[in-house]
Amino acid sequence: MPDVHAVLRTDFLDLEPHVTHLNLIAGNWQAGTSEIENRNPSDLSDLIGLFAQASPDQLDLTLERARSAQAEWVSYGLERKQAVLLKVGTELMSRAEELGTLLSREEGKPLAEGKGEVYRAGQFFTYYAGECLRQIGENADSVRDGVEIDVRREPVGVVAIISPWNFPIATASWKIAPALCYGNAVVWKPANVTPASAVALTEIIERQDIPKGLFSLVMGSGRSVGQRLVESPLVNAISFTGSVAVGKGIASSAIQNLTKVQMEMGSKNALAVMDDADLDLAVTLALGGAFGGSGQKCTASSRLVVHERVHDAFVDKLVAGARAMTVGHALEEGTQMGPVVSDEQLQENLDYVALGKSEGAELACGGVRLERAHEGYYMSPGVFLNTKNDMRINREELFAPLTSVIRVGSYDEALAVVNDTHFGLTSGIVTKSLARANHFRRNARTGVVTVNLPTAGTDYHVPFGGRGDSSYGPREQGKAAAEFYTTVKTAYISAGAPD
Q: How confident is the model at residue 18, as a pLDDT?
């Protein structure tokens, strides 16, 4: 097997397809017990590489090493930690073209989105580089004379990070960066669908001035490596992004060790279009929110709640816009929507199309598999009309380039429909009325609310998370991340009587 560093430090655009990429176990690059192929969903003949699958024993080894590495990392000075995160972030931003191309090649999102994701990942690291120097505690006088109180945050210890395939670098980064910033060790299990992005990010982090074993990459299936990770008593906290079903399973396993848990799960986001809305803006927001990333976003606009007075005009523009979208190879110029990520995802999407029709919804356009010059998992963006909010296509997360239009008769009805869901991640309204916008902002039961903006797209320096089945535990991103990645210590100090 070739030396892994010789492979990793070449340009990722020139990877040899039959090279096996390794896991970072206890500070060393190691082969696994097996390997998987990684193929381009835009062109199934394009083999990106082979990726090692770690064994449970390797996971145990890296967890043991992570505990001692974390104790060493805590002793590093603040500026030394800051320099590490700053270098990671700067390198990600400087290599956005290269690594964004790799990301789009293995995940399927258009190249502009891939490059943008890598650049944003770099911003997460540079933001938390700054936060390294802003970890300021509190002090207070005790109710007892002569006693002072010091309140500060300390790292939780070893953090397990389980990240999804739809934002393989960005989502991982907004977990990894604060975990390291606040003094923790990280054991990362990425999604098996997008392993190349995981190896690329790991290679950048591993080269920095960090203790050996502080950061580990453990690729493998959720059933073996993932389950053992969340059940391990050596893990102090688990940050997960994925489905509700998997999240509930993780929570059930974690509670056995009283492990701290943070989870971002499903969604069923709604964009409300009011009768006073700028329709061209509303359609642009709906198209981008519903079909960006092939609809494979937890913030996707999968329900379009439209006032009856503008319903028909909005639908005409929406359907025309969906039909006009260019679906193609992620790396081709002009592609507006790439393929979905896998055959499994494509089949699930087509099953939901059939389900929607069986429920009585009208498929106005799209929702079918497409043939392109290269064999891939292509699907046309689909719009359902005449839907009711109690249909399964409006209750369950589809993770597909599919959206449903729900007709309503008033603002009050629109708000009620928006809130009628088990989820609660994002919601939006398109209106010219300041009164409606403010009322919606205060009364929409979601963790994120947008006004005249798409439901997809959030900033990295403010909290992110939802309600209901969408989220569990402390918020992610911004200063809110400290709540999860640290634990509070309150110290009481008696100075004693003066001489």
A: 77
Q: Phi and psi (nearest 5°) for 401? A: -80, 60
- The answer to whether residue 333 is catalytic is no
Question: Does residue 25 belong to any structural domain of this protein?
Answer: yes
**pLDDT band at residue 222 using 50, 70 and 90 as cut-offs:** confident
Q: What percent of the chain has pLDDT over 70?
A: 96
Nearest to 240 by CA among 257, 261, 219: 261
Q: Which helix (DSSP H) or strand (DSSP E) does residue 268 occupy?
A: none
Tokens of 124: 């997460």
User: What is the distance in angstroms between the CA of the first residue and the CA of the last residue of the chain?
Assistant: 71
Residues 214 and 347 grouped into a single domain: no
Determine the Cα–Cα distance for residues 184 and 284; give it in Å rounded to an integer.
Answer: 42
Q: Which amino acid is at 16?
A: E
492: Cβ contacts below 8 Å, ≥ 6 apart: 142, 147, 148, 149
Tell me, yes or no, if 181 is annotated catalytic: no
Distance CA 398, CA 406 (A): 16
With a cut of 60, say whether residue 252 has pLDDT above it: yes
The answer to whether the CB of 262 falls within 8 A of the CB of 240 is yes
CB 154 within 8 A of CB 234: no
AA identity, residue 284: T
Query: Does 152 lie in the same domain as 208?
Result: yes
Of 264, 365, 397, 476, the catalytic one is 264
Both tokens of 157, joined, read 């210890």
Domain with 375, as residue range(s), is 269-451
Question: Which position among 106, 132, 181, 298 bears the catalytic label?
Answer: 298
